Amino acid sequence: MSRAFNFSAGPATLPEPVLRQAQAEMLEWRDARASLVELSHRGAEFIEVAQQAEADLRRLLSIPADYAVLFLQGGATAQQALIPLNFAEPGQAADYVLSGHWGKTAVKQARPYVDVRIAASSEAGGFRDIPPREAWTLTPGAAYVHITANETIHGVEFRGAPEVGEVPLVADFSSSIASEPIDVSRYGVIYAGAQKNLGPVGITVVIVRRDLLERAGQPRADIFDYRSHARSESMLNTPPTWNWYVLGLTVKWMLDEGGVEEFARRNARKAAMLYEVIDGSGGFYRNEVAPHARSRMNVPFFLREEALDKLFLAESKAAGLLALKGHRALGGMRASIYNAMPEEGVRALAEFMRDFQRRHG
Ligand SMILES: *Cc1c(COP(=O)(O)O)cnc(C)c1O
């Protein structure tokens, strides 16, 4: 059996060359006579791997020098709690813009530490759009404004950074980092769990403007302090070395493939293929997100007849198209088409969808 096309939302498909290299290097790291996974994180071998990964990520995302890059554990969810602890004073207001499920988890994690203000929300409309910027109510003196750049479950994506004035913009980029060029300087903090578009689960990237690290924040343990992580180059305690290494391979692969400009082109073509099938299906398939806010990374869709869901999943799986079941919060289907999903995989899915409609429509 060969590898299928895997549309999982995360952990998600990785580039095959990355998996092959990781496999080839698993048993013995160069001339170390041990696996990288068995070596000290403070040894020369791993330090080199870690520094190369950071340098490559800085190049891939054009991260300016006045931003620190942290490699942390706890996933995006832990950062959602650490952000108010590090950047807001006790009881200070922070603005949250909700465009889907993950914005709500950010609020849930922040609530114990900060005066959460919902500056805008598209929840009343079922999270099918980005709340229009004119309708946001920003709080004067807020610690930051938090957005979710791409809502992985609802399939709603910001196009570019919204204007929020002097207040730092904090953005959860877990499911769209490196999918297109971004202007990092528009953000105070960018964070992303790696398991969607950057590599394996178990490591999270936090890109933070260095002046924000001077903020007092709130009483917190050293291990929850971004400043301490920055000072110790993310080696305050034992980092997830293997995950860091595979992230580095994935980033290197993205650079070799042509960088974020090239992925922006591929991702636009991939998303267009699926939305065309959906919109051209005469209602057999539907995606209800406002076209200008549709995600290029996660394409949720529903079949007109829910009774066909099981058959769709069984037949797609048999055709080598995996993990198309939608998130339980929404039902229906979802195709996650991150950088590592080749265009031929999306073409195969589009053809399967047309064929399925011909047979069952
Ligand atoms: C997956 C995801 C999360 C949660 O990530 P964890 O690593 O499970 O904490 C948060 N935000 C977004 C946008 C996601 O896609």
From TrEMBL:
GO molecular function terms listed in the Swiss-Prot or TrEMBL record: O-phospho-L-serine:2-oxoglutarate aminotransferase activity; pyridoxal phosphate binding
Cofactor binding description: Binds 1 pyridoxal phosphate per subunit.
One of the GO biological process terms: L-serine biosynthetic process
Pfam families with a match to the protein in the record: Aminotran_5
Positions of post-translational N6-(pyridoxal phosphate)lysine modification: 196
Binding residues annotated for L-glutamate, in chain numbering: 42
Subcellular location: Cytoplasm
UniProt xrefs under InterPro entries: Aminotrans_V_dom (IPR000192), Aminotrans_V_PyrdxlP_BS (IPR020578), Pser_aminoTfrase (IPR022278), PyrdxlP-dep_Trfase (IPR015424), PyrdxlP-dep_Trfase_major (IPR015421), PyrdxlP-dep_Trfase_small (IPR015422)
Reaction(s) the record says it catalyses: O-phospho-L-serine + 2-oxoglutarate = 3-phosphooxypyruvate + L-glutamate; 4-(phosphooxy)-L-threonine + 2-oxoglutarate = (R)-3-hydroxy-2-oxo-4-phosphooxybutanoate + L-glutamate
Pathway(s) annotated for this protein in UniProt: Amino-acid biosynthesis; L-serine biosynthesis; L-serine from 3-phospho-D-glycerate: step 2/3; Cofactor biosynthesis; pyridoxine 5'-phosphate biosynthesis; pyridoxine 5'-phosphate from D-erythrose 4-phosphate: step 3/5
Record's GO cellular component terms: cytoplasm
Subunit structure: Homodimer.
Protein's job: Catalyzes the reversible conversion of 3-phosphohydroxypyruvate to phosphoserine and of 3-hydroxy-2-oxo-4-phosphonooxybutanoate to phosphohydroxythreonine.
Entry similarity comment: Belongs to the class-V pyridoxal-phosphate-dependent aminotransferase family. SerC subfamily.
Name the UniProt record assigns to this protein: Phosphoserine aminotransferase
Gene, per the UniProt record: serC
